[in-house]
Structures are given as C-alpha cells and as structure tokens.
Amino acid sequence: MAFSLNRIMLIGNLGKDCETRFTTNNISVTSFTMATTSSYKGKDGNWVNETTWHNIVSFNLSDYMKENLKKGKKFYVEGRISKRDYTDKDGIKRYFTDVIAEKLIPLDSTGGEAPASGGGESIESEPPVETDENADLPF
C-alpha cells in the first residue's frame, strides 16, 4: 500500500478582502489571496525578500471568519494543495494551483472575545508577530 501526504501550512498577509459565492447546492465558497515572504542573502551580500502569492479557497466559513478575512490581516492557513485547469474562450488551457484551507487562525489581535464556530476553523487570536517584513509587502 502506498502512502501519500498533501499538506500545506502558511503564515502570511491577505492581499485583498475575501470573496464569497455559493454553489448550486448552497455551499459557501470563500476565496482570497495570501502573500508569504522569505528572505535570503543575495550574491551582493544584501538581504532579498521574495514574496509568493497563494490562492486560498475555503468552504462553509462562519460569518465571523469571513468578516475578518480582510486585506493586510495576518493569518495561519493549513490545508491541502489542489490543481485545476480549464480552457478559456480562446482555446488556451489555463492551470491554477489553489490551497484548500481546512484550518484558519487569525494572527492579528482582535481586542475581544471571538464567538464559537465550527467547520474546522480556529478563531482564537494569537499575539501579533512583530516583524519588519510587512513593510516590504506589495499592499
């Protein structure tokens, strides 16, 4: 029997407010983008920040969580990678890689108690992480 694992864990800032739509079966689908940044020393010895953008998709989020998925907010996202493709109107095949979020944790302090929620999402606020990397993000 072959075993496999498809798991991703990200901490980053949202690039835009989340958007929610509903399937024909009335399942809410919430999507947003998240930027993660890594740093390394370049050939010249200076630090270089490299930002990677991720498309995040989550299902049946609570209203509380959707209200907190705002541009610039820091979140922990855990889930799995999903690939999809489609052919556009010009006949060109387009490919996308999404993160299907199974756990979301806001990392910015909210200043108050969060209501209970289900759906595999976590709503406990973590203390904010103080770094200068936010100054280099393109939003």
**What's the alpha carbon Rg, rounded to whole Å?**
17 Å
Please mark out the parts with pLDDT under 50 across 5 or more consecutive residues, or reply none: 111-139
In CATH, the homologous superfamily goes by the name Nucleic acid-binding proteins
Q: Main beta sheet: strand number and arrangement?
A: 5 strands, mixed, barrel
Q: Within the CATH hierarchy, at the fold level, what is the topology?
A: OB fold (Dihydrolipoamide Acetyltransferase, E2P)
Sequence of secondary-structure elements: EEEEHEE
Q: Name the quaternary structure.
A: single chain
The secondary-structure class comes to: mainly beta
Fraction of residues in helices? under 10%
Share of β-strand residues: over 45%
**E-strand count:** 6
List the domain count as a whole number. 1
Q: Could you tell me the mean pLDDT?
A: 83
- CATH architecture identity: Beta Barrel
- The 3D shape can be described as globular
- Strand order, biggest sheet? 1-3-4-6-5
Instruction: Please report the distance between the alpha carbons of the first and last residues.
Output: 46 Å
Task: Write down the CATH class.
Answer: Mainly Beta
What tags apply to this protein structure?
139 residues, mainly beta, OB fold (Dihydrolipoamide Acetyltransferase, E2P), five-stranded mixed barrel, 1 helix, globular
